[in-house]
Amino acid sequence: MLTIRRVKELTELEPRWNALLARSSARSFFLSWEWLSTWWRHYRTDFELLVLAAEEEGELVGIAPFMVGGGIDHLTGPARRLSEQVRFLKFLSQGPAYPEHMDLICQRGREAELTDAFARHLLGEERWAWDILSLDLQPADSPCRIPLLRALERGRARVLASVENGSPFLALPATSEAFWESRSTSFRKKWRYNDRALAKLGSVKLQFPDEAAGWPLERVFDEMLKLNDARWGDRNQSFIEPRFVAFHRELCRVAHSKGMVLLCLLTLDEKPVAARYDFIYGGKAWSYQGGWSQELAKLSVGNTFLGRVIEHCVSQGLGEYDFLTGEHAYKRHWAGEGERALVNLVANNPFAVRGWLYAAARVAQGVVRDRIIPSLPEALRARLSPGDEHPAPSGEGQPAQ
User: CA torsion sign, 87 to 93 to 95 to 100?
Assistant: First the structure.
């Protein structure tokens, strides 16, 4: 088992990283080398690498993409100072960029064996490197999830929270005709009405990055930023921090060169009126960001554009459009009943004093919130309520799409 703490050691895995990901059951864009390595270049000052790599006869068979750093303040009041001192073990890139479908990367068929080895290493040689394990948005059906829980329990770690989040997705058929036939009559009529109404205003087209046509990648990306801001305004929670923008600007260049970005505009007489910034990996599209002109809100230009984007995905042979987490009505509108569960896991390190103190503080805070405060008079409850202990961890709950 190798523990990787330096960038040089991490870079040495690049030629084999995506090859292992393709042989695993994880298959998430957010576990790709392009996403993780680019993210690390921009956020490395806030965290420490703790990537575990398993090799067998020179072949890479498993990666645990972890890092150690600060976390969300789950504790309130005087206990918050303790939270600020805790070393959280997280998935690499977890937090500031809102990745989802995070997981251990294990050769398919060997997940239980490798997950157990990773857990034993964390609770053995690396037991002094972290206090609390806090892993967000791991698929509930991951073959690594239950083995990890069992290994932590055998190591006497205490699971503090296991919270499920819904991730809507839309399975795509082989043709656009089949897709629209799968929609209800009212769904089709409303979308086609808005699409035709938009077309009456001028020439409507999907515009992808095209240097020769005067739409270089940078220009399309900048238009996406403008439309994202136009859509969300003061509620924009994503492209407002310079480092976040710089990360995505570089990621867009890197991933676009490898066919892993779906960046496009909807133009009306050559004027951008809507934009999507999504990813392509594993035969599916991963919804991430977007925006549209408020001047065309009455024509539901966002939904009209999304329909055309989905038609494009079908034409490219993609089998799914994953909307990721976040309670937005349009996701349910398009996905219907398609949904996966993603799980947030929090557990303490049984060898770390701060881990036990943090665990005890969270339990005490839960008792106060769930038992003591509800029994108090209403006026006093309002003054003492600690608020939401579990803010939305990822997806569109934070970055406005």
Answer: negative
Specify whether the CB–CB gap between 43 and 92 falls below 8 A: no
Measured CA to CA, the distance from residue 243 to residue 245 in angstroms comes to: 5
Inter-residue contact 315 to 165 (CB < 8 Å): no
pLDDT digits 0-9 by tens, 139-189:
999 999 999 999 999 999 988 877 888 999 999 999 999 999 999 999 999
Q: Which CATH number fits domain 2-165+341-397: 1.10.10.10, 3.40.630.30, 3.30.1440.10, 3.40.50.880?
A: 3.40.630.30
Tell me whether residue 11 is exposed, middle or buried, using C-beta atoms within 10 angstroms of its C-beta: 0 to 12, 13 to 18, 19 or more: middle
Distance CA 42, CA 191 (A): 40
Range 173-318 has CATH code 3.50.30.50: no
For the whole model, what pTM was predicted? 0.90
Tell the residue number behind the tokens 């997950």, with chain if given: 115
DSSP class of residue 143 equals T
Angle, helices 33-43 vs 242-256, to 10°: value is 150
Strand, coil or helix: what is 109?
Answer: coil
Q: What is the DSSP letter of 2?
A: E
